[in-house]
Amino acid sequence: MPPPEPPAERSAKGPLQTGFSTGTAATAAALAAAMALRDGRIPDQVEVALPKGGSRQVKIFEGASQKTVQTVVIKDAGDDPDVTNQAHIGVILEEAAAELTLMGGPGVGRITKPGLVLPPGEWAINPVPRRMLAENLAPFLARVGLKVTVFVRDGEALAQRTLNPRLGVVGGISILGTTGLVKPFSHQAYQETIASALSVARAVGLSEIILTTGGRSEEMAQALRPDLPEEAFIQMADYFKVALTLATQKGFARIGLAVFFGKAVKQAAGHAYTHAHKNDLDLKLLAQWLPVPERVKNQIAQAPTALAALDILKASGQTPCVSLVAQKTLAAASVFTGPGPKLVVTIFDFDGNILAQAE
Questions:
Q1: Cα separation of the two ends of the chain
Q2: Percent of the chain, pLDDT > 90?
Q3: Residue 80 and residue 94 in contact, taking contact as beta carbons nearer than 8 Å
Q4: Per-residue DSSP letter, 321
Q5: Is residue 297 domain-shared with residue 225, that is, in the same domain?
Q6: How far apart are the C-alpha atoms of 350 and 359, rounded to whole Å?
Q7: Which residues partner with 74 through β-bridges?
Q8: Most buried one in 174, 262, 296, 357, CB count within 10 A?
Q9: How confident is the model at residue 8 (pLDDT cuts 50, 70, 90)?
């Protein structure tokens, strides 16, 4: 999913609210369950120690205590449009012989492909949440061993709205978080997803990838290159510089860009992040580039959108000029990659036709 544009510091209802991660939710549920195991009562809320200092109060949604304790937390992503916002994340906790045994239950994914921070076969509970669980449960582990099974209600359905299936995480969502908190409209999460997808592509032995800006451009790229496996197609959204820089660092020999005309114009203009720039400025620049009659230049410079500018080019018989945009996109991309990888640019129109290619 393409990330939203970073908002101002305040929304209409006031300051944007910071939420907490799936890792914090699981830790809070485990902490409440451990307290119930010790005290015979499930608390209404707990205070979770965060990995980079500080703490967060988390409400406990529900719980049941018999021989084992089951507790559930409703994940609160604050004002971030997170797929897992309001997800019911819980644990089943029981005494065990070992100091701490961590398992995944229904709705938690399992890793099936190499290249991620954990090896294939492991539950998709990332290292920082694992550490959070261990550190927050340490006072209880001094008394008794604990087995913690993390589950997510409807987690498998939620995972279909993420890139988990592409990354080889099957059966549910990942339990994530590097700080324990979720900042509204964070770019970091999407950039980490791009990095993970690139790591998987390298781990399965690929030397070529194709970066797309979303689902539609990816489908067109896949139709164009049926010889490549799904791991080769990576949605970079608006992160033009980040994706190219990371792909170069990973050592890919050939990097493709499959984009629509509007994004290509922004990339050709050299924008590192292609979402938040003024369309009218980009189209004025486009008009300056193109070797077209002055009348057409003026129409393009005044066009309301890139799609309208493309329609003007088509109507005036100037579509071949899009090849210049492809060349400039190639040049802009090479600034971020350096001379290492071979670059290929394919520009589509909204009907899926190839307007131009350059390499």
A1: 27
A2: 81
A3: no
A4: G
A5: yes
A6: 22
A7: 88
A8: 174
A9: very low
- Residue-number span of the structural domain to which 222 is assigned: 206-358
Q: Which amino acid is at 290?
A: L
The beta strand positions in the chain, using DSSP E, are: 10-11, 14-15, 19-20, 45-49, 55-59, 62-65, 69-74, 88-96, 100-104, 107-108, 110-111, 145-152, 169-170, 172-173, 181-182, 208-212, 233-235, 254-260, 342-348, 354-358
Do 156 and 124 touch, CB atoms closer than 8 A?
no
Are the C-beta atoms of residues 238 and 274 closer than 8 Å to each other? Answer: yes
CATH code, 153: 3.30.2110.10
* Total length of the chain: 359
Q: How far is CA 137 from CA 141, 147, 188, 255, 343, in A?
A: 6, 11, 28, 45, 50
The pTM is what?
0.84
Which residue do the tokens 């409400």 mark? 59
Residue for token pair 């193109």: 290
